[in-house]
UniProtKB/TrEMBL annotation:
Its cofactor is FMN. Catalyzes the conversion of dihydroorotate to orotate with quinone as electron acceptor. This is Dihydroorotate dehydrogenase (quinone). It is a peripheral membrane protein. Belongs to the dihydroorotate dehydrogenase family. Type 2 subfamily. It comes from the Bacteria. Coiled coil: none annotated. The keyword Membrane applies. Gene3D superfamilies: Aldolase class I. Monomer. The lineage of its organism: Bacteria, Pseudomonadati, Bacteroidota, Flavobacteriia, Flavobacteriales.
Length: 340
């Protein structure tokens, strides 16, 4: 139904407007008694064999929603009822910011992809916290944090610390995002020295808490093997809890859609193989020393299985969810059980 009726209708309109339209209608429909129950019966699979214990947390199933979809923690409860085992909000910055000028989101239908140059548009950490207070532990939530566009890299650590402190009591794990291509200069923070310093600072603050939270690093798919080896060293040196591989890519190889020259981060099917390669490289070269959340181009259940086989402990969807709908979440969990 989603692919035959809903998607063709939604894909006729501007993707960013459709995103907010969809949020609005999911909210409205969720207020109808029994709606979420029906959704849950269709898409949620309850099976103890799907549970995963990763970095000290118990995930009801290994399929999560990647950051960028529910940027402001507005729909995490409703989205969890579509079968996701966890929801990652953000990227959250200390201050609200509008992001980059529109138009900034493009569907590449011929390539089953999306290009975005959103630029960390969000309502700021205080607005997110106000919504997260309503969760009360019901949905397992990751907090993806970043710096404001106007904050120079020399002061970026303070932005990450502000978000860490504000969100600490309201998320289950943190993701340090230094890999988005849409904030000028942000990827420079992936260099070994500044990244190690940033992560060690966050881990030091984390150690002061009575119950520290897992801290993960989200990396770009465009890193060389030498840079990926540096990431392994950084993870071990800073003693963070894991890696999310990968963010969107700046590569435009083999694209055919009319929007292929748009600037921004590319996600979807063109990223499938590269993201899996990065996961496999990190897992093998580190001797599986830390958990990896696999994300990037998961457009089918097999794509998810490939990432798990490559060394990922969990997976996340974004573009695949937009193209395939919630059925993809159910299909992945069914495939995992079939291969149990």
């Amino acid at each position: 139904m989603y692919r035959s009726l809903v998607r063709p209708a939604l894909f006729r309109f501007d993707p960013e407007k459709v995103h907010y339209f969809t949020f609005l209608w999911i909210k409205k429909l969720s207020n109808i008694p029994g709606f979420l129950s029906l959704v849950g019966k269709r898409y949620v699979i309850h099976d103890k064999r799907l549970e995963r214990n990763v970095f000290g947390l118990t995930f009801p199933n290994p399929v999560g929603l990647a950051a960028g979809f529910d940027k402001d923690a507005k729909l995490y409860k409703e989205l969890s009822d579509f079968g996701f085992g966890f929801i990652e909000i953000g990227t959250i910055t200390p201050k609200a910011q509008e992001g980059n000028p529109k138009k900034r989101l493009f569907r590449l239908k011929r390539d089953q992809a999306i290009i975005n140059r959103m630029g960390f548009n969000n309502e700021g950490m205080e607005a997110a916290v106000a919504r997260l207070k309503k969760n009360k532990g019901k949905v397992l939530i990751g907090g993806n944090i970043g710096k404001n566009k106007t904050t120079p890299n020399s002061e970026a650590t303070q932005d990450y610390l502000l978000c860490f402190e504000a969100l600490f009591d309201h998320v289950d794990y943190f993701v340090v995002n230094v890999s988005s291509p849409n904030t000028p200069g942000l990827r420079e923070l992936q260099d070994k020295e500044p990244l190690t310093k940033l992560l060690k600072t966050l881990m030091k603050e984390n150690s002061t808490k009575s119950t520290p939270k897992p801290i993960l690093l989200k990396i770009a798919p465009d890193l060389s093997n030498e840079q990926l080896l540096d990431i392994i060293d950084i993870v071990n040196d800073a003693e963070i809890h894991g890696v999310i591989a990968t963010n969107t890519t700046i590569s435009r190889e083999n694209l055919t859609d009319k929007h292929k020259t748009e600037t921004g981060g590319l996600s979807g099917k063109p990223l499938t193989n590269r993201a899996t390669e990065v996961i496999k490289f990190l897992a093998e070269k580190s001797n599986h020393a830390f958990p990896i959340i696999g994300v990037g181009g998961i457009m089918s259940a097999q794509d998810a299985l490939d990432k798990l086989d490559a060394g990922a402990s969990l997976v996340q969807l974004y573009t695949g969810f937009i193209y395939e709908g919630p059925k993809l979440v159910r299909d992945i969990n069914k495939a995992i059980l079939a291969n149990y």
